[in-house]
Amino acid sequence: MRRFWKEVTLEQSSFGYAVRLDGRPVKTPTRNELALPTRRLADAVVAEWDAVEKDIDPAQMPMTGFANAAIDRVGIDRDDFATAIAAYGETDLFCYRAAKGEALAQRQAAIWDPWLDWASGRYDVHFVIVEGVMHRPQPALTLEKLRAAVKARGTFELAAMAKLAHLSGSLIATLAVVEHAGSAQDIWNASCLDELWQEELWGADHWAQKNRYDREGEFMQSVRFLDLLGTST
Question: In the predicted model, is pLDDT for residue 63 greater than 50?
């Protein structure tokens, strides 16, 4: 779609701050009203629409994309959506380690254990550390408490959390971002530990690095979306 509007504005609606193009409502892909719950997020979405010069490029409108997902996807069945995010806790990246004694295992313990310790204290849970990649179940009570922590989050938060969990492979990393348990950059770097280790051993591959940088960009856009929502613990 090409730009046809001259002015992007906001209007208070029953759903929050609704975006208007020359006074007309903007619709999500499934024809819902595009309305944002906070003014900061609404201003960011307005800026994306105002920055369009000719054709709309969704890649250049990430805040709008997250908002659309929250309204069209999460809003349809919030409980199932939250359950899917919580499922990352069943095979959390931070729990799967190299064999004891290996240098990589020592690095994993040094970087990942503090995040598990944070989650253990924050949610009163226990984690099973697994050597190798064969699945071992986490304690049922741990999964139940983590699932409750995810379901306690709002519809718009869940839209960003789904992307964080997918990119990091870790529910613990996702919750740490949402609860401001550390810097987003440190959390992202922790989720890339295995990749960075391989680079140290064998050198960097251009395409592998580009892929990681692209994923990092998406991760940080998710973090920004949460920040604009004004999430707090």
Answer: yes
User: Whole-structure pTM over 0.85, yes or no?
Assistant: yes
Cβ atoms 73, 81 nearer than 8 A = yes
Q: Cα 124 vs. chain centroid, distance in angstroms?
A: 23
Tell me the helices (H) and strands (E) count for the chain, helix number first.
Answer: 10, 6
Task: Name the architecture of domain 78-229.
Answer: Orthogonal Bundle (1.10)
Could you report the per-residue pLDDT of 114-142, keeping only the tens digit for each? 999 999 999 999 999 999 989 999 999 99
- C-alpha–C-alpha distance, residues 116 and 127, integer Å: 8
Nearest to 190 by CA among 110, 122, 85: 110
Contact 93, 192 (CB under 8 A): no
Strands 16-21 and 24-25: antiparallel
Residue 31, classified by CB atoms within 10 Å of its CB into exposed (0-12), middle (13-18) or buried (19+), is exposed
- Which of 212, 148, 224 is closest to 184 using CA atoms? 224
- What is 8-74's CATH number, 3.30.470.30, 3.30.2180.10, 3.40.50.720, 3.40.1160.10? 3.30.2180.10
